Q: What sequence folds into this?
């Protein structure tokens, strides 16, 4: 028997697990996943962890295919020339192909004091820390959630439903991705739960201090616990390894998800930036990108030409505590349709999509190659063409 092909996946989230399971379509491939924890973290449950309605962990035995080795460690450096990954605990692992799937952290550019005085939600450890801080804070003490996107909305709603006093600082409109009428429903749900929603162009948090949050409109709000959900950030592993990244630190790839530095490195999920036109942060998208990354690796092993990524958007969903939700249908290009589901049905659909995000991984573990997703074929190539024309056409 010939030597096996070593595929190393850095990051065991939605993208990494999907890729690791799918690449096992070939018998001559050995797959190793490097991840800092023993457990899979369904990050789309982290606001529930904060609210105490879910522990947001799943056993890897449930989602990772038999035969995939899990190395519990942090990758600290990728040597693209020597094709090795250095581990924090010492030693290194060699690879023939590396799938870069380290996900995101939340955060991004922050305001003065946010790093010291605000609590993030975006990782398991951050959400657990916030949960214990809230446990020691009286329910009547107002918690301020900064960020009117999905994570901010869901966290604020979850806490308010527990009976906690909560305000949501949106720094613009609440739920900017929602259709305007769905947004009105979102406001109604939040208000009904008792969340004070602060919207408007000057409502961005400009500073966080011990016990206060300052807003762009000059207001200073008393805030015993400030929760930071605004912005986006990624681990700096690619940057630290001298690989090309976009401005946020995502690994720059071509449309097949292959790194522009090395055709042995393929990226997927929140930490990838195909053609410097990244997809938005999403577990659903991460799973599709993970599957596509595996397909690219398999094509390269077989000496075939990998295909460009193609996916059509379908829906995005928000829970407002455990009672109601909004399931916003999307056009293929990721813009909101007029059609959306609300109330109990919205929440059921949200719960269905959370469960489905795990089920897809389980199915792929048992039947590699089975994950399919709707394709678009139109909008992304048009966006790329428009962007490239703008870049290459000198202004008259
Ligand atoms: C509160 C919350 C709610 C959300 N709700 C939704 C939702 O409703 N729908 C939706 O589609 N999306 C939602 N998201 C976003 C979604 O969770 C992410 O987009 C998704 O997790 C991205 O998947 P990924 O595989 O790219 O990264 P991740 O799931 O973040 O996985 C990356 C993994 O890589 C590991 N890693 C990082 N650095 C290293 C390293 N150096 N070495 C080894 N391993 C490393 C990380 O620890 C992690 O385990 C939500 C996110 C949050 C925080």
A:
């Amino acid at each position: 028997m010939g030597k096996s092909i070593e595929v190393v996946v850095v990051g065991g989230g939605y993208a990494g697990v999907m890729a690791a399971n799918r690449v096992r379509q070939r018998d001559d491939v050995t797959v190793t996943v490097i991840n800092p924890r023993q457990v899979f973290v369904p990050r789309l449950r982290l606001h529930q962890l904060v609210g105490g309605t879910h522990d947001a962990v799943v056993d890897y035995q449930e989602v990772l295919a038999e035969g995939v080795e899990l190395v519990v460690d942090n990758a600290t450096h990728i040597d693209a020339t020597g094709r090795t990954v250095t581990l924090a605990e010492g030693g290194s692992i060699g690879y023939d192909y590396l799938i870069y799937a380290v996900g995101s952290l939340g955060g991004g550019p922050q305001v003065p004091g946010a790093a010291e005085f605000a609590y993030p939600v975006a990782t398991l450890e951050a959400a657990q820390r916030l949960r214990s801080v809230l446990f020691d804070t009286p329910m009547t003490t107002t918690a301020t959630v900064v960020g009117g996107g999905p994570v901010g909305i869901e966290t604020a709603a979850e806490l308010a439903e527990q009976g906690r006093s909560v305000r949501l600082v949106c720094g613009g409109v609440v739920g900017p991705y929602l259709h305007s009428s769905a947004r009105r429903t979102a406001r109604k749900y939040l208000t009904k739960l008792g969340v004070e929603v602060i919207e408007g162009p000057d409502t961005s948090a400009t500073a966080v201090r011990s016990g206060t949050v300052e807003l762009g409109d000059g207001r200073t709000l008393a805030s015993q616990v400030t929760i930071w959900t605004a912005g986006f950030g990624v681990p700096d592993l690619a940057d630290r390894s001298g690989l090309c990244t976009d401005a946020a630190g995502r690994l720059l790839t071509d449309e097949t998800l292959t790194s522009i530095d090395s055709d042995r490195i393929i990226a997927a999920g929140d930490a990838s930036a195909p053609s410097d036109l990244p997809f938005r942060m999403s577990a659903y998208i991460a799973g599709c990108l993970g599957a596509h990354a595996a397909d690219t690796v398999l094509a390269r092993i077989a000496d075939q030409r990998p295909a460009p990524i193609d996916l059509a958007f379908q829906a995005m969903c928000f829970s407002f505590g455990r009672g109601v939700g909004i399931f916003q249908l999307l056009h293929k290009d990721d813009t909101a349709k007029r059609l959306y589901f609300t109330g109990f049905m919205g929440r059921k659909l949200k719960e269905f999509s959370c469960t489905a995000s795990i089920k897809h991984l389980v199915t792929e573990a048992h039947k590699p190659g089975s994950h399919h997703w709707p394709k678009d074929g139109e909008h992304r190539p048009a966006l790329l063409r428009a962007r490239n024309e703008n870049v290459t056409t000198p202004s008259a």
